[in-house]
Amino acid sequence: MTDPHGFLKTSRRPVPARPVEERLNDWNEVYAGQALLPLVAEQAGRCMDCGIPFCHSGCPLGNLIPEWNAYATRGNWRAAAERLHATNNFPEFTGRLCPAPCEDACVLAINADPVTIKNVEQTIADRSWEQGFTTPHPPERLSGKSVGVIGSGPAGLAAAQQLTRIGHTVAVYERADRIGGLLRYGIPAFKLEKRYLDRRIAQMRAEGTKFRTGMDIGGAVDAIELSRRHDALVVAVGAMERRELPVPGRELCGIHQAMEYLTLANRVGEGDLATTPVTAEGRHVVIVGGGDTGSDCLGTALRQGAASVVQLDINPEPGDARTDTEPWPVYPKVYRISHAHEEARGRAGTDPRFFSSATLRFEGDAAGRVRALHLTEVEPVARAPRPDTERVIPAELVLIALGFSGPERGTGLMTQLGLVLDARGNFARDAGFAATRGERPVGAGTDGVFVAGDAGRGQSLVVWAIAEGRAAAAATDRYLTGATALPAPIAPTDRPMVA
């Protein structure tokens, strides 16, 4: 264990991000180049090695956090990396992208500041690569079974890596021109530099996983034929059915879905475009939606040189501390500042968010371009407009970041594989991740179709996607061989801890 008095002697000190004025001038990660050691090793020593570590419950992967904290504080990075990778295929992704519900579940958080678990995780992952501990793990023998994974986001990649390592022949099919799903085109480079994604994909290729891009399964590529080609399929296409904003003026030019905007910005970073056709440069930008996607749009707009940026959040402004309705160890709704919010405050001096605010309508010019947004304050529960609170703000670029309501509806993939939707609008599945299938066309193949990630769970976190991929891989292996040694960290019905 770590120093049993470490949490009493050492205060919490997260790794500092680069100065705002520096990072707004590039697309590098906000922590790029920052010294992680010895700060992180010292912070890992604050872990109490609890008898019942609730951080395990806060993380759907069941990460062995006290164990790798103990190794990290002693500088034993190889052992720390082994324990970290025992439960997490891609800790360099979660260490950068996950909002760290494990920290809010840390026992220290009952009455003190939790361990900086996220910083420790990222450091262990990065040190593992730097020191050559992270290497390909090809299977010792092949099973003779073949699996097709549809979708290359974190759930699909995790499922593919687990199934490849156990000995199955795995091919990943991606509709886009590059592997990675939202990790590639949805997450800005200042949160995840794509070289880390490319590095993992190279590792998976070396292990034997095959990747096929430009494969629109259910469209140009027949899903029925694909099901005949493989012994099992894992559907991990994500939740890409975007929520709309049905208000007057939505048809005006200059109003875009957030994912369209972020994808174009990422394509500039990939070198596909010299400039993006949807840019915030010199424009008054309004982001409708207060979640992580809205925050990603905010950071992107600031780097593109927006004249101003406002983010509308229909939820009331939360307090700074937990309330009795959200006790430890649940992930509480408290006032949080993302790096993008910090950047906006550094530029404008105020928080860019308008809480308890909803869009009434858009106003355009004679050419049909959006020029203003009419908003109103709303009641906290009913979300009904408050009388006499309407106001108008300038809007030359509007980004709709209201999240997703499940997998895309009515696609060829859904029809050809006979997939059906559950009550929440996701692909229905049983307790073993097997797809619940309705009427199937003649020749649609046998069973052996599994659903993983946001396609079955709904919009969620990267850490849940990886856990889903690992669990669905175990279910697929059991279907193919009759038994499995692969871990299954969650069930399809598991949900985050709530009060």
From TrEMBL:
<dbReference type="InterPro" id="IPR009051">
    <property type="entry name" value="Helical_ferredxn"/>
</dbReference>
<comment type="pathway">
    <text>Amino-acid biosynthesis.</text>
</comment>
<feature type="domain" description="Dihydroprymidine dehydrogenase">
    <location>
        <begin position="26"/>
        <end position="132"/>
    </location>
</feature>
<dbReference type="Pfam" id="PF07992">
    <property type="entry name" value="Pyr_redox_2"/>
</dbReference>
<dbReference type="InterPro" id="IPR036188">
    <property type="entry name" value="FAD/NAD-bd_sf"/>
</dbReference>
<dbReference type="InterPro" id="IPR023753">
    <property type="entry name" value="FAD/NAD-binding_dom"/>
</dbReference>
<keyword id="KW-0314">Glutamate biosynthesis</keyword>
<dbReference type="GO" id="GO:0016639">
    <property type="term" value="F:oxidoreductase activity, acting on the CH-NH2 group of donors, NAD or NADP as acceptor"/>
</dbReference>
<keyword id="KW-0560">Oxidoreductase</keyword>
<feature type="domain" description="FAD/NAD(P)-binding">
    <location>
        <begin position="146"/>
        <end position="469"/>
    </location>
</feature>
<protein>
    <submittedName>
        <fullName>Putative glutamate synthase small subunit</fullName>
    </submittedName>
</protein>
<dbReference type="GO" id="GO:0006537">
    <property type="term" value="P:glutamate biosynthetic process"/>
</dbReference>
<keyword id="KW-0028">Amino-acid biosynthesis</keyword>
<dbReference type="Pfam" id="PF14691">
    <property type="entry name" value="Fer4_20"/>
</dbReference>
<dbReference type="InterPro" id="IPR006005">
    <property type="entry name" value="Glut_synth_ssu1"/>
</dbReference>
<dbReference type="InterPro" id="IPR028261">
    <property type="entry name" value="DPD_II"/>
</dbReference>
<dbReference type="InterPro" id="IPR051394">
    <property type="entry name" value="Glutamate_Synthase"/>
</dbReference>
<dbReference type="GO" id="GO:0051536">
    <property type="term" value="F:iron-sulfur cluster binding"/>
</dbReference>
